[in-house]
């Protein structure tokens, strides 16, 4: 930033931002204004005269985009995957300052990312204390699973009635991608594609309330459903089940579509309960569910 050591070239928001007792714009302001220090770059901090006398460097584990919204999304995706893989286990504190430093980002986008993850149910925010990875309550998860299964059946029924042709084509494209890339995707990517398939069916219902409610429960059950999906992940079962759902959707057969969804989710509640019990007992490590892609 600013190849010339010239006051005229110094960005005004740096020159007029909050300054430290030495007259330099604070590092936090630079982070907040521009989102992140990108891997391998140098960020100049201008003094009161516009001279870039201070150079900060940072070393990131992962390169992250400079765009502020993309930055938040990148942090959310990274932390979500760490939770799903068991790097961050239920009950683990996620310290805003330490995590920001580790990822090379400012605390503002980190705070927003934690808020998003709290809405998804993966993070629990606590007053005047660090957020933690949400613990799994068996009764709550079981109740939410019953609701989600009902929403999945209703989504299939209404999608058969109201889906636009373009929406059905999108669902079919997702299915084709799943078939084509199953052997190359890792467990988390496959799970995200699977959830996208179900979300697209809910959206095709043309019922905004259903779509929003389905999204909410899908987010709340993201972690336990991932564990259950990883347990039963096999190429034949996954592709056969999803193909069985897609076929009646394309034919707009409500009864057959609902039956296919019921068959697909037949063991979901039992599998989720089993995984939650294992996690709470400390016997199950989500990292062990990672698919071997070698």
Describe the structure.
- With 294 residues, the protein is mainly alpha-helical.
- The chain has helices at 12-15, 27-34, 68-84, 96-103, 107-119, 138-162, 165-181, 187-203, 208-220, 222-231, 235-251, 254-264, 268-281, and strands spanning 42-45, 54-57, 123-126, 129-133.
- It has a two-stranded antiparallel sheet.
- Strand 1 and strand 2 (54-57) form a beta hairpin.
- The longest helix is centred in the middle third of the chain and has 25 residues, at 138-162.
- The two termini are 42 Å apart.
Protein traits:
single chain, 294 residues, mainly alpha, two-stranded antiparallel sheet, two-stranded antiparallel ribbon, 13 helices, 59% helix, disordered N terminus
**Number of strand elements:** 4
What is the averaged pLDDT score?
79
Question: Termini distance?
Answer: 42 Å
Task: State the order of secondary-structure elements, H for helix, E for strand.
Answer: HHEEHHHEEHHHHHHHH
- Helix-and-strand structural type: mainly alpha
Largest sheet, in brief, is:
2 strands, antiparallel
Query: Which strand-content bin applies to the residues?
Result: 5-15%
Alpha carbon gyration radius: 23 Å
Spatial sequence of strands, sheet with the most strands: 1-2
| Low-pLDDT ranges | 1-66, 285-294
Instruction: Report helical residue fraction.
Output: 55-70%
Q: What's the number of helices?
A: 13
Overall shape: globular
